[in-house]
Every structure is written in C-alpha cells, then in structure tokens.
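Field notebook, page 358. I keep forgetting to write these up properly, so this time I am using the form the group agreed on. The chain and the ligand, 4'-deoxy-4'-aminopyridoxal-5'-phosphate, are recorded exactly as supplied. Prediction of the bound pose follows.
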Amino acid sequence: MSWEDNVRKVVPYVAGEQPKGQVIKLNTNEFPYPPSPMVASRMYDLAEAEIDGATSMLRKYPDMDATNLVNAISKVYDVPFENIFVGVGSDDVLAMSFLTFFNSDKDILFPDITYSFYDVWASLYRFPYKQIPLNENFKINKNDYLDVPNGGIIIPNPNAPTGVYEDPSFFEDIVKNNPDSVVIIDEAYIDFGGTSCLPFIKKYDNVLVVQTLSKSRALAGLRIGVAFGNEKLIKYLKDVKFSFNSYTMNYPSIELATVSILDVDYWKKTVNMLIETREWTKKELKRLGFSFEDSMSNFIFTKHESVSGDDIFKALREKNIFVRHWNKPRIGEYLRISIGTDDEMKKLIEALEEILNA
Ligand code: PMP
C-alpha cells in the first residue's frame, strides 16, 4: 500500500503550443486582432485609479456573482440575469457543467472527433462516456443521439476541430428527444457565421448553451466563459461552483470583460474582417490542392491531395508558422489552421506554395 494508490490518476488535456518570439501563430484559434479598445482604456483607468482606491478593490474578494459582467451580458444578449452563468473561460464553465449535470451511471455522448477536453473531464470525474463516430464527411449523424439512453450529451457547434456547423433545428431535435438529460451545446465558435441555439433556453429546460470571450472577443488571456440556460439549470450550476471555489474570476477580469461585451460595434466589425479573411483563405487553399468541409469557425480543418499532414506541419514549423496537427486515427492527414490577419494568411499561403513546390 502506498499513498500513490489514493492518487486520482488522469491523462491531462494537451493544449496547443505557445511558442515564444516572432512566429505566425495559427495553432490555438486565438483571434488575430486586439480586443475592443475599451478594454485598454479600462485597463488604464484601473491602473491610474490608485488615487480613488481601485487597488483597494484588490484588497477585497471579488463579486462572486460578477454582477457587472452578467448585467452587461444580459443587456447585449437580451437574456435575464437568472439565466446566465460565468466562469474562468468556457473550459471552467464546461468542467463545472460536467460535474453538475452529467452525474450519472449512463454514458455521456459526444462525437469521436471533437474538442479533446470532453473525454478528459469525463475521465477525471469517472463518468462513463461514449464517443460516437462522425461520418466520413465529419458530419454528425443526428439519429445517433435520438432514442439512445444517455447520461448527458455535449456537442460543439461548429464542431472543433472540424469547423462543421449545423443549423439550430438539428440541435432542437436532439434537445427535444432527450428530455431526461441535459444537452450542452458548446458554441465557442458560433460568432463566425453560425446561428446560436440561445433561443432554446426559453423553450426547453434541459439545454445549456456555452460561449466564450476567448475567440470572437479576442480575450483568451482574460479567461471568461458564459453559459445560458433555464434558471433551474443555472441555479444548480452555481450551487456546484460555489461548493468548489466561489472566487474564480478576479476583479480586473470581470471589469475588462464587461466593457468588451458592451462594445458590440467593434466585436461585429472585427468578426466580419475575420470572416472575409477566412473566405479568401479557403479559395487559396483550394487552389493549392487542399480539401476541407466548409468551415463556419475561425479555423479550417484541411488535408492536401498529395503531401502528408505531418510533413506540411513540420515544414511550416521550420518556417516559424505554427498550425495544429494531431497524430490520431482518422485525422492524422489533417491540419487545423486558425485564421490570422490578412498579412499572416498571405504569408501562410506563400509558405505552403514553397513547401508544395519543393
Ligand atoms: N470549447 C471548444 C470547442 C474549444 O475549442 C475551446 C478552446 N480551446 C473551448 C471550449 C475553451 O475555450 P476557453 O476556455 O478559452 O473559453
């Protein structure tokens, strides 16, 4: 007998690299433009406000309900306060949601090719789960989620890393058909052209819609995520969160996230810029012999007709361009390329041309 017998042994999630120095970083789906200028302006305010006691705000515990932030979200999304939960990035929101809603002996269902944190959380909590294969075009077969006993369902829309998007009606059928379990729709990438399932929270008490400020609001470093749901779901989620750690979001991040949410014009403008660049990149990749399912996210999941994914990944890395590649069954030939600025994408296309013509 050793203390190691009592250790909760887990295989952790592997995040994309965060290389240092001058590189083109297209490997973790960060937004390429800065956050709203209101964020910088609020940062200066907070730094200068020593006189009227802003740093004394740091002396106190933060507002555990993040009231300012939740009020801002409530206003912009037209959703009542009671239907909103916030956490330290959507990873935190999702981890809390697994713990709260998937507490069952039955399998949690999610696709085989999806966000690779889901199986990590299920394993961490010792919840059984089943990964349901996508079809050969990386599409979800809706019937796999209908009339199947389960302990909960989680699906990203658009899916990651495939970028494949489904209309809300697709998810409505899954939510309707599973009244005895909670269905989580992970909308980390919904702002890049998709339609949110948010209206379902008024109609169904078993759906949780999760979003993040890390992608379309360019605040991955701030760590703020949001869940929308029926007030009963949100109450249960808060009960679990407050039984774990009440003060997860710190005072500055609550303040900065609030001003970012309220700057709707900047958000829409920069998202549209990204979508334009994505569409240009799709055309260029096709010209170079790449194929992909259409992407509605801020990344493209693609493979080349003749050169292996691993070879391209390594050759790009040599040129200080970082994209994401997984040595996993079914997706080993693919690269996930985040959409950067116009200039970064032009450099990517030039680098790919050199690699393919070498
Ligand atoms: N869901 C999906 C599908 C993601 O790709 C990510 C980003 N890695 C997240 C959730 C978590 O993002 P964050 O914690 O930064 O909100």
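OBSERVATIONS:
- The longest strand covers residues 207-212.
- DSSP finds twelve helices and twelve strands in the chain.
FOLLOW-UP: compare against the apo run.
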